[in-house]
Design brief:
Helices cover 37% and strands 19% of the residues. It is built from 24 helices and 22 strands. The strands form five sheets. Strands 12, 13, 14, 15, 16, 17 and 18 form a seven-stranded antiparallel beta sheet that branches. Helix 1 packs antiparallel against helix 2. The chain is globular, with a radius of gyration of 34 Å. The protein binds 8-methoxy-2,3-dimethylquinoxalin-5-ol.
């Protein structure tokens, strides 16, 4: 490639190709080539750019990886001020907003664009002749900071607009944000390394955009949704609808938020709000409300702006998910498996739509890392159905009389020593069912809906029964009598009768539910089903060793060890025996109609110790195998007992596998 024009053309075509691959991947979510092809073209372009540095472009896809660090941020003036947006927190205030608009426009049939309000940072992007030239933060609305070096690393922002006829000048505004998935990954990695974690995705995004070194920013994988065209030169005609304008930005290479909608009238806005609020926790991004905008650009212009915010838009906020309150104390709760969890007692605070006075701190490591002291002002978060949690302390408000939290050395319930297991963040009481807390949790789990489903036998009732020593294990449930139950707090004869009936009804169950109900560590519903299907009865499960357990695809060494230890414990088997003796039963699983040894031929020779030749033959045949009297190359295995005949020699000669009685029994057990 000698001629410079050839080089330029090649470089340009590679850049365009990579930009298109990027668009397919990030904007359309529909890549057309594998990563390896992207990498190959990328390397080709990189080599050409290195050989011809005179054709450098800051908007080349190779520059997305993050160039040199800058020394300080330059200021960036917003010729068109970056206004903020008015917030409303109740439907009545939204009605007021709509009424004001109707009065000013003398019209009430207004089309609105409803867009999720992301909890990110407002960013302004300037394009000249289709090239990204500058990007800045909002700052005070009139002056922000130039963060072009960082913004270039955001894959969802086009460096060059995807159009042959770009406007001469274009200013896009939108929200740079960190998705929940990226945030969780970033924080998990930080806590693994013992580093400080970010309080929320917004802080993480802000911290990333304020990096002087764009390579750090690149690792943070920020995203971007445009929310307005702040300026466009007259050479590019656009729709008069704000919503359609956003859609057309997709053609130019922006990823747009597909959760946005255009609706007619205020009632439809309220419906959209309810719809998005219900989906809040399943959205890929943190969302703190809905932005409602008059859709018609001409009407927007007619309405204009007040000093701080446009009159044609409002943010209808969701209930806050975070709030400040004071940490009164820490108590340690003992879980079903003996884990001690620090639970924060708080000054009651209204957050996420409810008043809360308890929150979790997850484990002692996390508490130490977050440097939380009793008496601190703390940030609590309650999002959706998630248990309220403490995000961190507000160090600036720490009073001199706060006190540190000591990590217990003994179980707060049964007083036996607690242990910290290597590689686990938790501390654990190892007393098992001897510890009243674990006993209670084990029984609560046993009676729960997905386990034995004993209706009415809930947390509060079990608590009383354990405290009074009436229930010492799940087996005692079957000896509860009407009198005992009727005399408990908040119980009467009617509710006691209901419980007795529910206990009786729950006796008919399935093997999988029963295994799940036992509460063996790491044995959830799915694992219990697999075990039930494979072993089909308790006896085979009792005698299974760890290797046999691990032979099941879904069971690894940790679960196998827990199972083996559980069934190796005489005390556990005693409880199971008592439960079964009380009448708990399940249908014997139907024998599988699939014949796993179908098409395989075996030969039996010599005397077997534990079963007769006929029995061995019958069991093989039940699994679909044929039993032959002579060994051939097609024989899958020769089962050898005491004093074998010439069939053993033949097996050696033809290199057919030889099975001892022990191997043979293991084979049968695997499939029966
Ligand atoms: O701060 C904002 C967040 C989201 C906005 C906004 C937005 O739309 C989804 N839209 C406008 C027009 C403004 N601020 C000024």
């Amino acid at each position: 490639m000698k001629k410079n024009s050839d080089v330029i053309q090649k470089i340009e075509s590679l850049r365009a190709l990579l930009a298109e691959y990027n668009y397919q991947y990030y904007v359309l979510d529909a890549p057309t080539v594998p990563d390896s092809e992207y990498d190959r073209v990328f390397q080709q372009l990189l080599q050409l750019e290195e050989a011809y540095p005179q054709y450098f472009s800051a908007n080349s896809p190779t520059q997305r990886v993050g160039g040199e660090a800058i020394k300080a941020f330059d200021n960036m003036l917003h010729v068109i001020p970056m206004l903020s947006i008015d917030n409303v927190f109740e439907a009545v205030a939204l009605h007021r907003f709509a009424r004001r608009i109707a009065e000013r426009l003398h019209c009430s049939d207004i089309a609105y664009s409803c867009e999720p309000k992301l909890d990110g940072l407002a960013v302004s992007l300037h394009y000249e002749a289709g090239q990204l030239v500058r990007a800045g933060t909002r700052g005070d609305g009139a002056m922000g900071e130039d963060i072009t070096h960082n913004v270039r690393t955001i894959s969802e922002i086009p460096l060059v607009l995807r159009t042959a006829t770009p406007p001469q000048h274009l200013e896009i505004r939108g929200e740079a944000y960190m998705s929940k998935a990226v945030f969780n990954r970033l924080n998990a990695r930080a806590s693994q390394k013992g580093q400080k974690t970010f309080a929320n995705p917004r802080n993480a995004a802000a911290g990333s955009l304020r990096q002087l070194d764009p390579r750090i920013m690149k690792e943070r994988c920020l995203s971007f949704f445009p929310y307005a065209i702040a300026f466009i030169s007259e050479d590019a005609p656009l729709s008069n609808s704000h919503y359609e304008r956003l859609l057309s930005l997709k053609e130019w290479g922006f990823k747009i938020n597909s959760d946005s909608e255009r609706v007619l009238g205020l009632d439809a806005c309220l419906k959209y709000y309810e719809y998005l609020l219900a989906r809040r926790s399943s959205l890929a991004y943190e969302c703190d409300g809905v932005v409602i905008k008059v859709d018609d650009i001409a009407l927007q212009t007619q309405l204009g702006a007040a000093t701080r915010a446009p009159r044609w838009a409002v943010a209808y906020k969701f209930p806050a998910e975070e709030a400040l309150t004071r940490l009164l104390d820490i108590e340690w709760q003992v879980g079903r498996t003996g884990t001690l969890t620090p639970v924060a007692r708080l000054e009651p605070v209204f957050v996420g739509g409810a008043t809360i006075s308890n929150a979790t701190l997850h484990n002692s490591d996390e508490m130490a890392r977050k440097d939380i002291r009793i008496g601190d002002v703390v940030i609590v978060r309650r999002a959706g159905d998630v248990i309220p949690e403490i995000i961190g302390a507000v160090l600036a408000e720490r009073a001199p009389n706060t006190r540190g939290v000591s990590i217990p050395t003994h179980c707060p319930v049964c007083h036996s020593p607690v242990y910290k297991i290597a590689d686990e963040a938790a501390i654990r009481c190892m007393a098992g069912l001897h510890c009243a807390a674990q006993r209670k949790e084990a029984i609560v789990h046993y009676a729960s809906r997905k386990a034995m489903n004993i209706e009415g036998l809930g947390d509060k009732l079990i608590d009383q029964l354990v405290i009074q020593n009436i229930l010492q294990s799940p087996a005692d449930i079957y000896h509860l009598d009407l009198n005992t139950l009727a005399n408990l707090d908040r119980m009467g004869i009617k509710s006691a009768e209901n419980i007795i009936r529910a206990v009786e009804a729950s006796k008919k169950t399935t093997f999988a539910k029963f295994l799940y109900a036992l509460g063996i560590r790491e044995v959830g519903e799915a694992t219990a089903k697999i075990l039930a299907q494979h072993f089909q009865n308790l006896e085979t499960l009792y005698t299974a060793n760890e290797e046999e357990l691990m032979a099941l695809n879904e069971i690894g060494p940790v679960v196998a060890a827990y199972l083996h230890a559980f069934f190796g414990e005489v005390h556990n088997k005693e409880i199971i025996r008592a439960i079964v003796a009380a009448g708990v039963h399940w249908p014997q699983a139907q024998k599988s109609t699939v014949q796993p040894l179908q098409g395989q031929t075996f030969v039996l020779t010599g005397t077997l110790e534990t079963l007769s030749r006929e029995e061995g033959k019958a069991r093989l045949e039940a699994l679909g195998a044929k039993v032959s009297s002579s060994v051939s190359k097609k024989t899958q295995g020769v089962v050898v007992g005491d004093a074998p005949g010439s069939k053993l020699d033949k097996a050696h000669e033809l290199q057919v596998p030889v099975l001892t009685e022990k191997d043979f029994l293991a084979l049968l057990k695997l499939w029966e």
